[in-house]
Design goal:
single chain, alpha+beta, D-Amino Acid Oxidase, Chain A, domain 2, 7-stranded mixed β-sheet, 3-stranded mixed β-sheet, 12 helices
Length: 348
């Protein structure tokens, strides 16, 4: 991972993540579901649960703006806290060699992007800034094409002549958002269970949304297998998953707050600034900082990458063995190392 400040200051971070295109992941999941006899339906919008046939269990995994959850808000008691910063999810055919954070100073303040390749020729490009910078740069008034042109100018050094892609360009929209932090007093009501962003959101800066949704599915399956009574199983699912995601939710809040306060850290030397960014999710022992300093030296960085590759390979083999002898989620030994690695998977 690399951290760039003002285009010419660079620091390196340890570790690396993994990414997969959303369509590719969905194709894999759909293929497996069909193999198991699931009736997978596309382009069907459910306005009300009464449109569905009778079912023992309905799983609502319909996102942060879940229609199912909102229809039963009095039972789920949703709390939504909207983040301060503005952000936009874009793409580019400029493929970077590694996960990158890049911070640029403008007359209106700081603006930055996160980027990571998720296939051979496409990179995710998430831009974020404070609302003051967003307004100061005129994004509140600029149209779709004008906004992309300005962003391409600001980040020209990094894009190297490549353009930015906006999935909503054909609609004439530029989807700037504020991130909603969703929590619910209850994750289930009658035979309806919430899952993924419908139940809980974690800030995109820690890249765990899809991973947590899939772990929810594993946890729910484990609870259903362990209990014959549906309400007991749903209660078990919720209790276990709340405990399991607590650490990541806390880290996500800390990460959100760090990015909302970038100007307080940005004037540090780039190595210290990068370490502050890296430890935004929590405090670490002193030896971690010494390791960070060593990572700035090319030969030691390469050595660290080699050691990490060997370690991750070993973990992958362990997970393959666990896959051959599965343990019900929430009812056996927890593989913390595997969970830590999975948390770095991003989906586009």
């Amino acid at each position: 991972q690399e951290v760039h400040v003002r285009g010419n200051q660079i620091a390196h971070l340890g570790g690396y993540g993994f990414a997969i295109g959303r369509k590719h992941l969905l194709d894999i999941l759909v293929q497996r579901a069909v193999e198991l006899g699931v009736d997978v339906q596309f382009d069907r919008e459910i306005e009300d649960l009464t449109e569905l046939p009778d079912a023992d269990l309905i799983v609502a995994c319909d996102g942060a703006n879940s229609r199912v959850r909102r229809a039963h808000d009095e039972h789920f008691q949703t709390d939504a806290q909207v983040g301060r910063n503005k952000y936009i999810w874009l793409g580019t055919h400029r493929v970077f060699d590694s996960f990158m954070f890049a911070f640029e100073e403008t007359a209106a303040g700081w603006i930055w992007f996160y980027s990571y390749p998720y296939n051979a020729d496409t990179t995710t490009f998430i831009v974020e800034c404070s609302p003051e910078t967003w307004t100061g740069l005129g994004f509140d008034k600029l149209g779709s094409d004008e906004s992309l042109t300005l962003l391409e100018k600001i980040f020209a050094h990094h894009l190297d002549g490549h353009s930015l892609m906006n999935s909503m360009r054909d609609l004439g929209k530029i989807p700037w958002l504020n991130f909603p932090r969703i929590t619910n007093t209850s994750w289930h009501h009658d035979n309806v269970a919430l899952m993924g962003d419908a139940a809980h959101t974690t800030h995109f800066s820690i890249g765990s949304g899809t991973t947590l949704a899939m772990q929810d599915a594993i946890g729910l399956a484990g609870s259903l297998a362990a209990h014959d009574d549906l309400q007991v199983a749903l209660k078990d699912y919720e209790e276990n998953r709340r405990v399991e995601i607590m650490g990541l939710q806390s880290a996500a809040v800390s990460s959100t707050e760090w990015f909302e306060d970038v100007p307080s850290y940005i004037d540090q030397p780039v190595t210290q600034f990068a370490y502050s960014l890296w430890k935004r999710r929590g405090n670490y022992p002193l030896w971690r900082y010494q390791l960070h300093l060593a990572t700035q030296i090319a030969i030691l960085r390469k050595l660290r990458q080699s050691v990490s590759a060997l370690r991750n390979g070993s973990r992958a083999r362990q997970r393959m063995k666990l896959a051959d002898h599965p343990v019900a989620a929430g009812h056996g030994t927890e593989d913390h190392d595997a969970a830590d690695t999975a948390a770095s998977v991003r989906v586009e």
